[in-house]
Design brief:
This protein folds into three domains: 21-123, no CATH class; 130-273, no CATH class; 274-366. Helix content is 43%, strand content 15%. The protein has 14 helices and ten strands. Helix 7 (228-241) links the parallel strand 9 (216-224) and strand 10. Helix 4 packs across helix 5. 40% of the residues are buried.
Length: 382
């Protein structure tokens, strides 16, 4: 979590009713003076009060914290004391944790609202205008128009931009964006068709990103923001090869195909650009692979991905942290089912090609007619 340095974090939430309002006011003032971000303000205030606090901004965003950290549910307590600050939103504090009532409570809420407003203004990213962001990655627009949209978003043509394509529910997309925000100077996001476009400027190259369970993600970059249309094209192509994330934290192994780098696809990109799901369905290896997975479950698919990504069954077993015999048994069954040996000449590449084609077949629904490289119907600014 980001935030400016301030007073030391308390060991834990105090017993309710023992905190003086002046103590909380001093903390809020101190956090405001050191330019703390909104998350720091809420978590530190909640820890001192020993109860939940939060804010619903005028844009409808909800941020909340309990004495034990951020509250992603953002639910406002039934007995909440609230204060509406024009142009900012409504802050609230769980009334059960308020040490007093009346004018002092009103002052506390007002001071918290003002501090939240300062935090939002100090740490707000450039206006993430969805239309402008979609225009930045729209290769059909001229460079002058896209440059003006970059300025509108706080970017330059030379900004080191990393572009992500994400297929995930809204709450998972929000979690991913918030995580990237901790490692980049500017993070912008917008929905595009049934995907989510995320652009990060100055992303820490050493950052280890996680993808919410079940979400698919791919990226391209960093590269100059002037090349954003190509980065977006590559990220969407990469998404065709990505598998749903098995866990929310990285790093991920190559066999897991999470956070695929679209710029590293090489000749495989042609498959995504030219083959449709109906064509792939006619490939016997893919048809047999589908039946194999249907009969023996996703665990068989995980095993075969590891075998295709390594040089031997023994290495695949180590990669999966399983006994060699367990993996060997599945390999023998898969070889009989598919009709070829993975150790014969070109056997392993043939297996990998079948796995890749199956990924493309099962990701075709992510894109509208025209494929991953087709034009987006989203409106653009001209």
């Amino acid at each position: 979590m980001s935030g400016a340095e301030g007073p030391a974090q308390e060991a834990g939430p105090p017993a309710q009713g023992v905190v003086e309002v002046d103590v909380v006011l001093d903390l809020i003032d101190e956090l405001t003076e050191c330019d703390a971000d909104l998350e720091s303000l809420l978590t530190r205030t909640a820890a001192v009060l020993g109860c939940a606090v939060g804010i619903r901004t005028v844009r409808g965003d909800v941020r909340a914290a309990t004495p034990w950290g951020l509250d992603r549910t953002g639910r406002e307590p039934q007995r909440a004391a609230t204060y509406d600050l024009p142009g900012t939103g409504r802050v609230w504090i769980d009334a059960d944790g308020l040490p007093s009532a009346g004018a002092r409570t009103a002052l506390l809420l007002r001071r918290l609202g003002i501090a939240a407003k300062v935090a939002l203004l100090t740490h707000a990213p450039p206006a993430a205008d969805s239309v402008a962001l979609r225009s930045v990655v729209d290769g059909s627009l001229d460079m002058a128009t896209r440059s003006s949209m970059m300025v509108r978003l706080g970017l330059k043509e030379t900004s080191a931009a990393t572009v992500f394509a994400l297929c995930a529910p809204a709450d998972s997309a929000w979690m991913f964006v918030e995580q990237v925000r901790r490692h980049a100077r500017v993070v912008l996001d917008a929905p595009v068709d049934n995907l989510h476009l995320v652009m990060a400027d100055g992303l820490d190259p050493a950052a280890v990103l996680g993808v919410p369970v079940g979400a698919r993600a791919a990226f391209a970059g960093p590269r100059p923001a002037a090349q954003a249309p190509e980065a977006w094209r590559l990220a969407r192509l990469g998404l065709r090869f990505a598998l749903p994330s098995p866990r929310p934290q990285g790093p991920y192994g190559v066999e897991e195909a999470v956070l695929v780098d679209g710029a590293q696809l090489g000749g495989y990109a042609v498959l995504a650009e030219t083959l449709g799901a109906e064509q792939i369905a006619l490939v016997p290896d893919v048809h047999r692979l589908d039946r194999l997975v249907d009969e023996h479950g996703e665990d068989m698919l995980v095993c075969l991905e590891a075998v295709a990504a390594t040089e031997s069954v023994r290495k695949a077993a180590r990669l999966l942290h399983r006994h060699h015999n367990s993996v060997a048994y599945r390999v023998e069954r898969a070889e009989r089912y598919l009709g070829f040996s993975f150790t014969e000449p070109y056997g392993r590449p043939r297996l990998f090609l079948a796995l890749v084609l199956r990924r493309l077949q099962h990701s075709a629904h992510l894109f509208p007619a025209g494929g991953a490289d087709g034009p987006s119907p989203e409106p653009s600014v001209r």
